[in-house]
Amino acid sequence: MSNGSNATGTSRASIAESNRSRILQHLYHNGVSSRAQIAKALDLTPAAITKITAQLIDVGAIQETGDMEGAKNRRSIGLELDTAHFHVIGVKFARSLVRIGVFDLAGNTLGIEDMPPITNETIGETVTLLHRRIEELLDEDDLIVAIGMAIPGPYMRDKGYTAVVSSMTGWRNVNFIDEFTHAFRVPVFIEQDARAGALAHYLFDPESHGENDLAYYLVGEGVGLGVIDNGHIVNGALGAATEIGHVSVDVHGKPCDCGNVGCLERYCSTPAIRQEIVANGEIVPGAQSMSNAEATRALFALARKGDAKARELVLRTARYVGYGCMIIFNAFNPAHIIIGDIVAESGDLFLDEVLATVRGRSIPELYDSTRITLSTMPTDAAVCGAAAVAVTQFLERPSTFFDLG
Amino acid sequence: MSNGSNATGTSRASIAESNRSRILQHLYHNGVSSRAQIAKALDLTPAAITKITAQLIDVGAIQETGDMEGAKNRRSIGLELDTAHFHVIGVKFARSLVRIGVFDLAGNTLGIEDMPPITNETIGETVTLLHRRIEELLDEDDLIVAIGMAIPGPYMRDKGYTAVVSSMTGWRNVNFIDEFTHAFRVPVFIEQDARAGALAHYLFDPESHGENDLAYYLVGEGVGLGVIDNGHIVNGALGAATEIGHVSVDVHGKPCDCGNVGCLERYCSTPAIRQEIVANGEIVPGAQSMSNAEATRALFALARKGDAKARELVLRTARYVGYGCMIIFNAFNPAHIIIGDIVAESGDLFLDEVLATVRGRSIPELYDSTRITLSTMPTDAAVCGAAAVAVTQFLERPSTFFDLG
């Protein structure tokens, strides 16, 4: 019987790809490992390991690192996926900002830059510029193997455009799939931004690395959510699941551009925060002429200095973020909720009130078994997340990146 | 090289089990198929099919059906999973009711019975009786291969008990895993009731058979949800995900026993409906002395006759059920929401108002691509769902049921 026809098996090609991916992921998550260690961890036969690793070494995906201490003190050769040897580009889109980063596979930032500020009128221009800039980066750096992009939700993942929403008005005419997927010498992968942030924490964050039931709760210009349930990203039929910003916390509340009423986003996103600042007699002096992010950051700074009105608004915002956590608890029951983006800069006053809100409203069993933390990723989790989208594909579909026959 | 060591493969045992399961599922969903058809559909080699099907025939899991019309007019032998040849027991638990059904693998009801009515004081007794009754059923019917149980949420799936809640107060001291898992000659599988309902529609309902992005929205004594996302049941870290009954639709609303405020369940479950009936001057005459289910059914009957007050309350209930659909849209983006349990008996007046509510509040792209229907399963979807939990395990883990070496 040839190797190609195994009597217990699925088609050779799909098993081989799945096993290559599992080996890459093992090396990615565990570092230098011997063939025997991989065989044991993945329940693969020594013959399979020998064959697949030879192929991966051959195409340059992994390499031998020389002797390492083996089991029972026998010495054996280590294998390594050199995360510094492959680079990816991450692109984060927002209403008025496109940020580009170059990262290695471990999520280390090699460079980061913002495109010129964008208005609805300059979106076409920005897209043209972005194409050009990505081409330049690809020319400069041969190690780049993939591009990831992060788009604010509701992003229709399977169709390529954002549905609604005010925060991305001008971008609605761009079909990201048509525009970018096949535009460059390397493949492009596109994901909703909070889902990309969840992948970033899963892959790059020492605080949540490899957690199989993880939620990344983005509270910034918009409010978004990415959920990993038992190792699977929750996508929904059109890829429009986990749109927590448009879950209503008050069915009699403020109308939202999405058509719904009382959407969470209307209470704790930075535009909502700035609106409250201005409506309450400019809690932050000069807020009227600040951007949403600037006004929000200024509010946090004032609250830290003890300003009573600023503290009050921070606490109110935190309660709404807590109501969002309650939705996440009941809808997804993750082991860990990571709150990220601008609001994660707010600090303890904020987090304590989020926790108090959740403690007061949840089942003790769930409260006690769910961690809620602020993101501590050094770089913008969405641009890092765009890179994580690319890295995830690199690890899951090696044959897209290497000539593996 | 022996069959046991395939150079492309994972461990023989796990591949073999996975392939057996895929073949059983193929036959379950597609009916009589030739080996060539299965090989093509599952991307398996002919050698693998020959070996695995021989083994499955040998232990009696599947059988040959004689000649069938093959491709290119060659005749070939059909294989069949005879769904009438294996039976399962489904047990549905509720506050005051335990219902037991015997089903075949296709979900056909062979028998159904209710245990005597239950109060908090008689739960211990009920558990003892249930053990005895299941033993009798197992003695009477050799074809029974598994038992499934459906428990109202929030059910801590990985721990075995219900967290909170008023509707199951007396049951909180029962650990279902300890009590039942290893109690009988056949294995027992336990699931939250709405998740079981989702599996019932996935397996048994011609209207939604095999739909990979499916939500079963249980609106009855409680409000629950089961979601299949891309073929995976969404469970959460402790198995307490998709608890939509305790997602708040109004953060300033009615307090709930779970600790949260404004829980959906407080507005459209049958206890909430009965409360409204009574609070509004007994819209249903005699409602005070009726059970929640009786009062709700009487309300629906009155509304159908055109009673204005009854219609008004049905429409109000439908709007809240619609708000719940909006949560499901934004959290899970399923392709199909099936509304089931007592409220599914309400008919068109109700469904039309649910649809109008959702249409008015959702993104058109999502509304247009999501079906919302009332369940048309002939039997109580939760007891049928309990059976579906058992059938799912039968199809996914054949080696639990047959001596497959």
UniProtKB/TrEMBL annotation, chains A, B:
Q: Which Gene3D superfamilies match?
A: 3.30.420.40, Winged helix-like DNA-binding domain superfamily/Winged helix DNA-binding domain
- Source organism, top-level taxon: Bacteria
Q: Which Pfam families match?
A: ROK (PF00480)
Cite the PROSITE patterns for this sequence: ROK (PS01125)
Similarity comment text for this entry: Belongs to the ROK (NagC/XylR) family.
**What is the designated name of this protein?**
NagC family transcriptional regulator
Organism of this sequence? Bifidobacterium callitrichos
Q: What is the lineage of its organism?
A: Bacteria, Bacillati, Actinomycetota, Actinomycetes, Bifidobacteriales
